From TrEMBL:
InterPro entries: Homeodomain-like_sf, HTH_AraC, HTH_AraC-typ_CS, Tscrpt_reg_HTH_AraC_N
Classification via Pfam families: AraC_N (PF06719), HTH_18 (PF12833)
SMART domains, sorted: HTH_ARAC
Keyword Transcription regulation: yes
PROSITE patterns: HTH_ARAC_FAMILY_1, HTH_ARAC_FAMILY_2
UniProt-annotated stretches for the region Disordered: 281-304
Lineage: Bacteria, Bacillati, Actinomycetota, Actinomycetes, Micromonosporales
Gene source species: Micromonospora cathayae
Keywords: DNA-binding, Transcription, Transcription regulation
The name this protein goes by in its record: AraC family transcriptional regulator
UniProt KW Nucleotide-binding keyword: no
Signal peptide bounds: none
Length: 304
């Protein structure tokens, strides 16, 4: 069965840094349940081959299991973890980055009659679906190339294109078609998300960002919430705090400096919001991440 072979390939080729010999392809493996870890999903296909993965986006909770996948259409700050994994039955996953230009290329060459009808409205930025047998087979054939490296330059682009086609004709068609089209509401929100990520430390007015992406303020608010499950200001806060955590892992003693660097004028507000997101005060979390919670402790690993 494709899922069985997919598991075997993932076990054989998993690396600690998640990388593979194929561009834009990553392999995830966890031998035990992982703690909830703030991370970012963006323009990616993530397929679970074994185990259970859970994640929170805003106030929405998601869970997907073996044979299920998600597609994230914009960069989304989530808290994710593997809920079920053991050394004898590790959690296994396959990830593939989905460049919008590659999706647009397939869309331009596709016969619209071959694509499923899409209901009106803005799709969510992240949805879970069951993988078809054809999608699983394409993922298996892509990973088989890791055993034949000389075939990767020629065949990997063709199979990646097939995977995009399988997604466009499957349960995620609305999401893929929206972020592959430059004038869709989802592409406008994607531009806004990128602007906020690039300027996360700076205050901004929502009206100005809406104008930049060519939307009315009311439409911008409505579509941003539909895609990201949070308001633009809440999104900025999540990005600020995730960047702060990375900075504190490297320099745990400079809480005030990190707070200012990511855009907080009030250290007290920074500490309060940091504790709410990460479950502990910045200083204690920073020491743990830096590896000084006890002598010889390894540094905390950031999850994917």
């Amino acid at each position: 069965m494709p899922l069985d072979e997919l598991r075997a390939l993932l076990v054989r080729h998993a690396r600690p840094d998640l990388s593979t010999g194929i561009d834009d392809v990553r392999i995830f493996r966890a031998d035990r349940p992982t703690p909830p870890t703030p991370t970012t999903y963006g323009k990616v296909l993530a397929l679970v081959a074994q185990g259970t993965k859970r994640f929170a986006l805003g106030d929405r909770l998601y869970e997907y299991h073996a044979g299920e996948y998600l597609v994230a259409s914009v960069d989304l700050p989530v808290t994710a973890y593997f809920a079920r994994a053991t050394p004898g039955e590790p959690a296994l996953g396959f990830g593939l980055t989905l460049p919008p230009a590659a999706v647009a290329e397939v869309l331009l060459q596709a016969d619209p009659a071959e694509l499923p009808d899409v209901a009106p409205g803005t799709p969510a930025g992240l949805v879970v679906s069951t993988a078809s047998a054809e999608l699983l087979d394409a993922a298996v054939r892509l990973l088989r190339l890791l055993d034949q490296p000389r075939d990767i330059p020629m065949l990997a682009p063709l199979i990646k294109r097939e995977i995009i086609w399988r997604l466009l004709t499957g349960g995620q068609s609305a999401v893929l078609r929206q972020f592959g089209l430059p004038d869709s509401s989802l592409s406008h929100i994607a531009r806004a998300v990128q602007w906020i990520r690039d300027n996360y430390a700076q205050p901004f007015r929502v009206e100005e960002v809406a104008q930049q992406v060519g939307m009315s303020v009311s439409a911008f608010h409505r579509n941003f919430l539909a895609v990201t499950s949070m308001s633009p200001i809440q999104y900025q806060k999540q990005i600020r705090l995730q960047h702060a955590r990375l900075l504190l892992a490297a320099n745990p003693s400079d809480i005030a400096g990190v707070s200012r660097h990511v855009g907080y004028e009030s250290p007290a507000q920074f500490s309060r919001e940091y504790r709410r997101l990460f479950g502990g005060p910045p200083r204690r979390d920073a020491v743990r991440l830096h590896g000084h919670a006890r002598p010889g402790a390894p540094a905390a690993r950031r999850g994917g």
